[in-house]
């Protein structure tokens, strides 16, 4: 969840990085009494995200800077549309400009890409989810942007749920069907009934051993479409069927049509392009 402390810390870190000893240009070139009236303008269409970061950036730089008419997170916009109006002491506006735009551009890029994946599977019941492939230190922000784009958040981190992958099974000595089922059952006993357990498999012949254990979901990694459809039929709705691996805009609809419940897409965060937004003077 994108909490106030997370927002404040992210902005403080970004401003410290950008102006650790102040803004030399504005301090020497811009008179302190000068006023600026500006607007954030979209150079291309998209879905907005990061409004709280824009407000907090200017608040931390100079509380006298006023941010008005800020677009709502999750709102679609067209090229040329005004997304915010920012006015106040010119020094504060100019010092905060780049950091505010960086947040808005990055997060709006994630929201926009997510919205395109969501639109591609709208004719199915599949949900589009993110992954842990996020920018270090910005996970909460990027996952909020995924929600703004209409997507669903996967687990936030390693502490949220159990996800057993091939290396975990190898470490547990699960070398065949019987030992895999036994290892997963022991894990369930230790975890308790309220903890989600998701198991990743990359071959159809691994499915029965996983389903024989009391798990919550199966992550079908890099499955061919035919095998995905077969797996979904065999799962039969008993656990969550999730597809992942190499998902792209031109393939996600076909994946969704196999009947999977969730499609996790790492590129929502690690592959999103920052949108082109600019700060223009009135």
Automatic annotation (TrEMBL):
Residue ranges annotated for the Quinolinate phosphoribosyl transferase C-terminal domain, each copy included: 110-280
EC number(s) reported in the record: 2.4.2.19
One example GO MF annotation: nicotinate-nucleotide diphosphorylase (carboxylating) activity
GO biological process, one term: quinolinate catabolic process
Catalysis performed (reactions): nicotinate beta-D-ribonucleotide + CO2 + diphosphate = quinolinate + 5-phospho-alpha-D-ribose 1-diphosphate + 2 H(+)
Swiss-Prot/TrEMBL keywords: Glycosyltransferase, Pyridine nucleotide biosynthesis, Transferase
Keyword hit for DNA repair: no
Pathway: Cofactor biosynthesis; NAD(+) biosynthesis; nicotinate D-ribonucleotide from quinolinate: step 1/1
Self-association and partners: Hexamer formed by 3 homodimers.
Family: Belongs to the NadC/ModD family.
Name this protein carries in UniProt: Nicotinate-nucleotide pyrophosphorylase [carboxylating]
């Amino acid at each position: 969840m994108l909490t106030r402390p997370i927002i404040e810390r992210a902005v403080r870190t970004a401003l410290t990085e950008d102006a650790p000893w102040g803004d030399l240009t504005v301090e020497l070139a811009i008179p302190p009494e000068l006023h600026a009236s500006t607007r954030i303008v979209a150079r291309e269409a998209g879905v907005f995200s990061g409004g709280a970061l824009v407000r907090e950036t200017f608040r931390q730089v100079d509380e006298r800077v006023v941010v008005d008419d800020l677009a709502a997170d999750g709102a679609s916009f067209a090229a040329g549309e005004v997304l915010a109006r920012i006015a106040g002491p010119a020094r504060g506006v100019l010092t905060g400009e780049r950091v505010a735009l960086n947040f808005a551009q990055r997060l709006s890029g994630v929201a926009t890409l997510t919205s395109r994946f969501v639109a591609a599977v709208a004719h199915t019941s599949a949900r589009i989810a993110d992954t842990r492939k996020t920018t270090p230190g910005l996970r909460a922000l990027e996952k909020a942007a995924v929600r703004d784009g209409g997507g669903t958040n996967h687990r936030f981190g390693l502490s949220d749920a159990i996800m057993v992958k091939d290396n975990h099974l190898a470490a547990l000595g699960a070398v065949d069907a019987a030992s895999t089922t036994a290892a997963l059952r022991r894990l369930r006993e230790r975890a308790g009934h309220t903890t989600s357990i998701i198991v990743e498999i990359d071959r159809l012949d691994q499915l029965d051993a996983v389903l024989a254990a009391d798990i919550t979901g199966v992550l079908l990694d890099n499955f061919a479409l035919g095998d995905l459809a077969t797996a979904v039929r065999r799962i039969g709705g008993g656990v969550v069927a999730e597809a992942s691996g190499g998902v792209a805009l031109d393939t996600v609809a076909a994946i969704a049509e196999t009947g999977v419940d969730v499609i996790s897409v790492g590129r929502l965060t690690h592959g999103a392009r920052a949108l082109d937004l600019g700060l223009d003077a009135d």
